[in-house]
Design brief:
The complex is a heterotrimer of chains A (244), B (50) and C (218). With 50 residues, chain B is mainly alpha-helical. Chain B contains one helix and no strands. The two termini of chain C are 23 Å apart. The chains are: A mainly alpha (244), B mainly alpha (50), C mainly alpha (218). Chains A and B meet through helix 1, helix 2, helix 3 and helix 7 of A and helix 1 of B.
Chain lengths: 244, 50, 218
């Protein structure tokens, strides 16, 4: 049974139906463990006080913001090369999730930064890069909505995702360069490695796992919706032509 | 409530906003899924009778 | 391909909206910043370089949707797609025409408008150089965006939403060139990186744009 069997929409629907409740339950569990443990049962940081607790939201959200885009990139490539509709629809499904995670990363980053830097927003390389990523997500979602024909939309958004990925990587380096020159250390950035001592680490792992599973669950739900919506659209077209 | 020290507002705000976003996204996704499924069932029921 | 370039240029000049409009918009945006920020010369001097770059970037945006749209409407885009010259060359020619009627005039006008913003003396050279190297990238990226949205009736706003984030690396490096130039620091690195973006865009985006065009012409 090859992985490509999932490319068939019917098989995809059949296979994901029983899996979805388990993934959702696991997601809720991991996320709850991570966040409750992190919020209630970890000490405050020597330098940052209680704001270090925001790490359990900010770091997983930021990781998923990037991972969601990578998943969209892979899905777009699969669509362009192998024309599997499920892949294109999965990319479409993932985008709003990535968008929300990016917003979460930006907002929690800004809120975390306020006590630390004294201001709500700084154009440090990391926040700047995430801001740009947010704009890329917006454009991608907007393009899907603007085009009527589903296959045309899938093709164009895939090309946008490809080109966007190149520019997203470019932007990361450009932002780094623009703020601090290419080889200086990131003095203002919230460096994950610096801050994460052991006592914080395990709840963070749970939180990250929770976010990953939430992403998977949401993409499954939304892809199933997209598949059904596509079928609905096809039925409506057929009816229109039969009545015409 | 753990001792949040002087940082009560930022920490609580961060958690509240994140949970609102998360639940909002999940809620919207599930609601839309149900709506589309209902519409599809109706349409498929129609095309079976018709 | 040269013929295509000349044709687009003549069309732009004849339609009148060509270089005049972009430069006029650039002038207006420049003055708007001065109006918004206030007449203090020391403040304007500090932001002048960046404002000129942003103004030129926004002015480039104006004529993007016309790169392919008019040809698509009268069917000549289909003809171009099926002609013996590769579609990638068509994209290059059109991006080239766009640059000659937008990017280049803006680059030439920038020093004059720099006066309005009290641009520091060192800035004149660096702003012009940054624009000269960077605006071709803007035309190419813009052509890609135009190719994506050519099928849409009111794609102008969406075009801006798609293209502006793609413009960011170019702007960031150009801004670094200008900032370092004004502060008498070495500018070689950002300048090379800026040139790298333009060269990369030249190499890759014609393919991406023609792929998008082919999809839209189906």
């Amino acid at each position: 049974m090859s992985f490509w069997e999932f490319a068939n929409p019917r098989k995809f629907m059949a296979w994901t139906a029983p899996v979805l409740p388990w993934v959702s339950a696991l997601a809720a569990l991991a996320l709850s463990v991570g966040l409750v443990w992190g919020f209630f049962f970890t000490p405050n940081d020597f330098r940052q006080g209680a704001t270090v607790k925001i790490i359990y939201l900010h770091v997983p959200a930021a990781m998923m913001a990037i991972n969601a885009w990578v998943m969209m990139l892979v899905a777009s490539l699969i669509w362009l090369v192998r024309r599997h509709h499920v892949s294109a629809l999965a990319a479409r499904a993932a985008a709003p999730v990535g968008l929300v995670f990016t917003a979460m990363a930006l907002l929690t980053g800004a809120i975390w930064g306020q006590p630390t830097w004294g201001t709500w927003w700084v154009w440090d390389p990391r926040l700047t890069s995430f801001f740009i990523l947010f704009l890329f997500y917006l454009g991608y979602v907007a393009l899907w909505q603007a085009i009527e024909d589903p296959d045309t939309a899938a093709d164009l958004t895939s090309v946008l995702c490809l080109v966007g990925s190149v520019f997203a990587v470019l932007s990361r380096y450009a932002a780094l360069f623009w703020n601090q020159g290419l080889h200086q250390g990131a003095s203002l950035s919230l460096d994950k490695e610096e801050n994460v001592a052991d006592v914080f680490y395990i709840p963070l792992l749970f939180a990250i796992a929770g976010f990953v599973l939430v992403f998977v669950a949401l993409v499954l739900v939304r892809t199933r919706t997209e598949i059904r919506a596509r079928r609905l659209h096809a039925l409506a077209m057929r009816e229109r032509m039969a009545n015409a | 409530m753990p001792d949040l020290g002087p940082h009560v507002v930022p920490v609580l705000a961060a958690y509240c906003i994140s949970l609102v976003l998360l639940f909002g996204l999940v809620g919207a996704s599930v609601l839309r899924a149900r709506r589309v499924k209902r519409a599809l069932d109706r349409a498929e029921g129609r095309s079976e009778d018709g | 391909m040269i013929a295509l370039l000349m044709r687009d240029l003549t069309l732009a000049v004849r339609a009148g909206g060509g270089f005049g409009l972009a430069v006029a918009f650039f002038l207006i945006v420049t003055s708007l910043v001065a109006f918004g920020v206030g007449p203090r010369l020391d403040l304007l001097a500090r932001i002048a370089g960046g404002v000129l770059l942003v103004g030129a970037l926004l002015a480039t945006l104006l004529s993007l949707d016309r790169i392919f749209a008019t040809d698509r409407e009268d069917g000549s885009l289909d003809l171009l797609a099926t002609s013996p010259i590769p579609l990638e060359a068509v994209v290059l020619a059109k991006a080239g025409a766009h640059w000659l009627t937008t990017g280049l005039p803006l680059t030439l006008a920038a020093p004059a408008f720099g006066i309005l913003l009290n641009l520091p003396p060192a800035g004149y050279f660096w702003v012009s150089l940054a624009l000269l190297v960077g605006t071709p990238a803007l035309s190419l990226i813009g052509a890609f965006g135009a190719a994506l949205t050519v099928g849409l009736r009111r794609g102008g706003l969406l075009l801006s939403l798609l293209v502006l984030p793609l413009y960011v690396p170019t702007l960031l490096f150009a801004a670094e060139v200008v900032r370092r130039g004004i502060e008498q620091q070495p500018t070689a690195v950002p300048l090379l990186l800026l040139a790298g973006i333009t060269t990369g865009a030249l190499a890759l985006l014609p393919f991406a744009a023609s792929a998008a065009l082919r999809v839209n012409l189906r």
